[in-house]
TrEMBL record:
Belongs to the glycosyltransferase 20 family. This is Trehalose-6-phosphate synthase. It comes from Streptomyces mimosae. CDD domains: GT20_TPS. InterPro entries: Glyco_trans_20. One of its GO terms (biological process) is trehalose biosynthetic process.
Amino acid sequence: MTVEPPEPSGQVLVASNRGPVSYTRSGADGTLTARRGGGGLVSGLSALGADAGTWVCAALSDDDRAAAEAYGGRLPAEDTGGQSVLMLDIPRETFEAAYNGVANSVLWFVHHLLYQTPLEPVFDEGFEAAWARYRAYNRAFADALAEEAEQGAAVLVQDYHLALVPGLLAKRRPDLRIGHFSHTPWAPPDLFRVLPDEVARELLLGILGADRAAFLTGRWAGAFTDCCAALLGAEVGEGTVTHQGRTTRIGVHGLGADAEFLRERASRTDVDERLAELRERVGPGRATIVRVDRTELSKNIVRGLLAYRRLLTDRPEWHGRVVHVAFAYPSRQDLAIYREYTAEVSRVAEAINADFGRDGWTPVVLHVKDDFARSLAAYRMADVALVNPIRDGMNLVAKEVPVISENGAALVLSREAGAAEELGADALLVNPYDIAGTAEALHRALTLDQPTRAAHAKRLAEAATALPPTAWFLAQLDALRGW
Ligand code: G6P
């Protein structure tokens, strides 16, 4: 007997750890103020219209939990811009163990190849307890989605935080069309095997519970299917993985930059003001090498600074003629290793300034306070953009700079960033571990002749915007509904 797939409902559910809104409480009465975020999912879901679906996310802080409690999880439309958002009030210990103890310090590390010492990782009782909570956190999402979903609805589950959700949900609601999207790289089998066997299997089986598992590049999709074959003995076909009688389709959707949004936002007066300030800081007639990142270990900021230092050492002709504008915005500061890394970035930048700087020339301008308008100003003024992650799912900075750079910035890009698959032909590709090679690429980028640079910049901007966020989102949805 063949089971016909159910008629799809028009309803779309998105599930992600971080939702589109966060809260802060202030004053004696604990007034809750909402702050809305951006990104590909926000654009995609809003393109469907306010009634099309619901976004299910976790409360990330005590203030979020207060809001989730106050509103019974359903956030008021005025806080969400009309979008229906269900914020799950997951107990703090469960959330923190799942988020910091598993997702950020284990899964993120495995997929980004960040374990670099013989002492890490340690899978002890502490990890086992965190893993139990990761499961509970995933169950909380699966329960909420099972409750919320109409017959045959499409459910788009996001990222490594929620890898178990597709499997859990498919068991409870076989009528649903479930997609999982990984925004990160995926580890090759030899590295994925670092995880305890049962954990590795459960993660793969969890994602294979989806009808469709999608990735940002073919490389990450291939690593995932290699893991399924190597660890589960699954059968890998042309764009499919079959295991225990169930087939999951594998998709690739390379998220692009949102040109319309970026151009409009970058032309506002607050960005003009920041640009004027930055120009003054850099000094007239000097070339700029720009980088903008979260202070994230995988972004490889320290090696980027060391490559710049090497440029100044090997090629003194650049002294006084170039400034490295580096924005490194603190991230995941709950983890000690991130706090240490943030401090190291500042130390290395200060040492460069102390060793090479002179009156009227500061070789590195480092900012650590998040400021989107200033980031856009830096993109506008960049002569060279430096994007050198150890590994990255895509890296949107590499795609955003070409869209709004006024000087046709040259792009020095890690070959390990997902974006290299689409932009590689017009970028100067580097091995992110190779400091001398990166320094040399910076020199070549700074000395590219203007017509070559302009031709690259034009093609980079085209490639970077090939699949803007709304189209990226709708393509996933269409593919999932196409079944
Ligand atoms: C980056 C990654 C995403 C991930 C997100 C989590 O943007 O590309 O894959 O979901 O970080 O960041 P958070 O600040 O929520 O831990």
